[in-house]
Structure formats: C-alpha cells, structure tokens
Amino acid sequence: MRQSYLKNAALLTGSDVVLRLAGMGLRIYLANALGGEGMGLYQLVLAVYSLFVTLATAGVSAASTRLMAEELAGRPARARGMLARLCAAALGLGCAAMAGQWLLAPVAARWWLGDARAAAALRAAAFGMPFMAVSAVLRGFFVARQRVGPNVASQMVEQAFRIGVMAAALELTEGRDAGVRCAVVLGATAASEAVSALLMAAFCRREAPRAFGHDRAEAPLHAGQRLWEILWPVGGGRCVASALHTAENMLVPACLTVYLGQRAAAVSQYGVLKGMALPLVNFPFGLLGSLGVLLMPEIARACLRRDSRRLEILLGRMVKLTMYVSALAGAAFWVWGRPLAAALYGSSEAGAYLEILAPAMPLLYLESMVDGAMKGLGEQKAAFRYSVWDSILRIAGVAVLLPRLGMRGFLLVMILSSLFTCAANTRQMLASAGLRPDWAGWLAGPAFAAGAAALAGWGLRRALAVPLAGSRWMQLAAVAAGGAGMCAVCLAAGWPLGLGAELREACLPRRAAKETGGKPESSGHQL
Asked: Which residues form a coiled coil (predicted)?
C-alpha cells in the first residue's frame, strides 16, 4: 500500500509540474499572439465560461469518487450500474450547460461582458461541456480505484492536443479580429475536452473487467438520492461562488473604463493582469498543490480518529512548508518580476503587477492550502461562508475603488481580500483543530530565509546586468540562474530553522510513526 501511495504521490507531483509548465508556456504564447486587448477579451470569455463549467461539473467528480468507492466495496454488478448512472447524469448536466451557454452567448457577450465579439468564442467553447462532465465521472472512478495513471495520461494528451491545435489555428487566423482568434482558441479547448473524454472512456473499458468482473449491471440502491445528496451541497455552493466570481470579473473592465475613459485600454489592462501576471504568480503553487491533495485525506483521517497529536503535526507541516515556498516565491518575484515579464511578454506593466503582488504571495498561497485543510476537518460550511462574504466584499471594493483608483484599486482589493480570507480560514482551522500557532516556525523562519534569498537575488541581479540587457533567451537564462541561486540560499538559511526536518518527514513516511508514539496508520499513508 505504501509503495502505491508513494507512486501516486510522485505521479501527481510530476504531472502537476509538467502540466503547469505546459500551461504557462501556452499562456505566454497566447499573450504574445493575442496582445493585451485580445487577452483581455479571452479572460472575459473565461469568466462566463467558468460559470457554465461549474454548472456542468461541480461536485460530479467528488460524487463519482465517493459513490464508486462505496459500490466497489460491495457487489461489482451494482458498481457497474452506478457508473452507468453517473455517466448519464453527467451527460445530462453537460448538455444542459452546453445549451444554456450556446443560447445565452449573444446576450452574455453584449450585456454581461459589453463586447459582442465574445459571442462566437462562448458558442465555440460550449461544445466541450458534455465531454468535460463525463470525464469528471471517469476520473472519479479511477480515483476510487486508487489509480491516478489514466487521469495523468489523459490530462497530458489533452494539454498536448490543445497546444497543437491552438498554435495551428492562431497561425491560420493571423491578422484577423481578436474575436475570431478567441473563438478558435476556445474551439481548440472544446476539441481537447472531447479527446480527453474519449481517451478516458478507452481506459475505463480496459479497466472494467478488473473492476466489475463480467457480471451484468444491476441497479444500485437509491442511486439518485445518494447522488443528489452530494451534488446539491457541493455543486450548489460552487455555483454560488462561481456566479459571484463571474460578476466580479464582468464588473472590473466596466469600472476600469470609467477610470480610463476607454474600453479598449481597460480590457487591455485587465488582460495584462489576469492573462499575464496572475498565471506567473500562481505557477509556483504547483509545488504545493500535490501536498494539499495528499494531506486532505490524512487530515480527515486524523480528525475522525480524534488523533490530536497527528493532526497538529500535519497542519503544522502544511503551514510551515507553505510559508517557506510562498515567501521564497514572493521574494523571487519582487527581485525578478520586471525582468521575467519583459523576457516572457515584453511587458513592463505585467512586471509592475508582479512586484506589487509579491509581498502578498504568502497570503495567496496559505489561503488556498488552508481551504483544503478546512475540508479535511469537515469545515466546508465555514469555508464556503467566508468565500461568499469575500466575494461580496470584493465586488463592493471593485465598485467603489476602481472608478477612483483604476488598477491600483483592484490590486488593493486583491490584497485585502487575501488578508481577509486567509485570516478567517486560518483562525477557524486553528480553533477547529485546537492548534496553537507556532509563530517562530511559521513566520520568523520563512521570513528570515526569504530575506536572505532576496538579498542574494539583488546581488545576482547586479552581477547579471549584462545578460539581462541582451536577447530574450539571455534574459530568461539570467532570470533562471538568479532564481536558482535564491532557492539555494533560502534552502541553506531555512534548513537549520526547521525546513530540513519537515522536508525529511514529508519524504520519509516511515518516520511519521515515531511522531504518533510508534503507532503507524494501518494504511501506511504517511507524509
């Protein structure tokens, strides 16, 4: 079991890093191909698209994982019947979302987004909804089978297909209107979802004899009721949050237009922030994403067993590693943000946004990790409540500050929002777990290590001034060398302050038994 766990952990971590690298490369290519206004229009389309994606898929994967795990532990014939019913339900949700987005595309483009050019892109993206929903069910099935290989393979193929088709489509539409080019980009996304679903179906067909035997499908007990009991709270909450998020994304360009006086300039600034700067800010989170996925069931298990010692260790490790990674990422973007944005996008504006957001990165990263831990502790309702309040406050902040301060107001709203949700969720997590904060280990150590890395980074930036003034590839090489040097300094400074011990425990699961008084978990799932 331990070997399977470590294999899954390695696959998740490796695939996440590769997919993030590929996604970042695609974002950079799109930013250069579409320009600031094109990226702004693309981000506006994604705001509406994400709402319908939520309607099609929210809670589907979680329901599939849970219900298939329950049925696979019993009669295989009923498990086969449950999978068929889950796929049918997902197909119905996906088709409903597709029809809704197709029919509402002209209205959403003109009245919600304020740009009629978005209608074609919304309609092109709608065709991927049914495939996306069915894929979510099949991925949940493989998670219930404790097999992540098919999910990883399908995501890799999907991303490779998407990149290839997008690149070809953008080459063929060179010089066309931004609306046309956004439409072909979203059409490529829909086609890649279809490829992923077909590949997952092939994997499922091969897995079926091992999972279900050769028995014919039987009707599972109360399938509809059990599915609804999961979809309603999970999907309903996500739909509300997604609707509020979509409303905010539609409001930002409108308020920026009031400040700037020009719609095109407002959409361009919005595209630079959302399409260029924020993907870079979120990229280092890939180092923590797999940790969060693996920690959540461990936290849930410790919570159910009321193992307060184990819970304290897991949560403390999560916070400490998150703070070290986020503090280093913030220091790196503070030092190298402008050179990196100039090398990747040729945009000084994106670099300025990176510098401003750099000090807030510990809040951004910790907020996401604590949200996952809250679900493991059974505090989903509290996390959802804070998320809704945060969205309401963000919308109010956008409406008040952006017409007066422009993009500076939006950056201020983002930072204050992260401070609110991070503080609220962390406070609730500590209270629920009965955990006392370790301020020295959580804040002082990461701050010292990141400060040392920042000083080293400024020295390296001066030493690398010549390549930073050269070609784009020389600039990227200089930034990579400087970032590697900062990582080494941060690791050396933080190792004796507790970072080394946490990394050893995270990588050597056998030692975790010593932390809990020599009582290892029966599943062997230690971090």
From this structure: none
| Amino acid at position 226, single letter | R
DSSP, collapsed to helix, strand or coil, labels residue 347 as: coil
Q: Which of 74, 77, 123 is nearest to 99 (CA)?
A: 123
Other Cβ atoms closer than 10 A to 271: 25
- Of residues 505 and 497, more confidence is placed in 497
> What is the C-alpha to C-alpha distance for residues 130 and 456, in angstroms, rounded to an integer?
50
Nearest residue to 512 (alpha-carbon basis) of 306, 288, 316, 289: 316
User: How far is the C-alpha of 53 from the C-alpha of 57, rounded, in Å?
Assistant: 6
Percentage of the chain surpassing pLDDT 90? Answer: 35
pLDDT of residue 296: 63
Burial 315-326 (b: 16+ CB within 10 A, else e): bbbbbbbbbbbb
Supply the pLDDT for residue 511: 42
Question: Are 87 and 200 within 8 A, CB to CB?
Answer: no
Q: Which residue has tokens 């119905």?
A: 92
Burial 473-496 (b: 16+ CB within 10 A, else e): eebebbbeebbebbeebbbebbee
Write the DSSP symbol of residue 215: P
8 A C-beta contact, residue 355 and residue 365? no
Confidence grade of residue 1 (pLDDT, cut at 50, 70, 90): very low
- Tokens 């955990």 locate to 435
| Residue at token pair 């979509």 | 246
- Dihedral-angle region of residue 59 (phi above 0 means left; psi in -120 to 50 means alpha; beta otherwise): left
Degrees, nearest 5: CA angle 134-122-99: 55
Reply yes or no on whether the pLDDT at 150 is more than 50.
yes
Q: What is the DSSP string of 8-33?
A: HHHHHHHHHHHHHHHHHHHHHHHHHH
- Give residue 521's pLDDT: 36
Tell me how far the alpha carbon of residue 33 is from its chain's centroid. Answer: 24
pLDDT at 134: 94
What radius of gyration do the chain's Cα atoms show?
A: 24
- Taking the C-alpha atoms of residue 188 and residue 183, their distance in angstroms, rounded to an integer, is 9
Q: What is the mean pLDDT of residues 317-346?
A: 91
Question: Minimal CA–CA distance to 97: which of 61, 121, 129?
Answer: 129
- Check if the beta carbon of residue 63 is closer than 8 Å to that of residue 140: yes
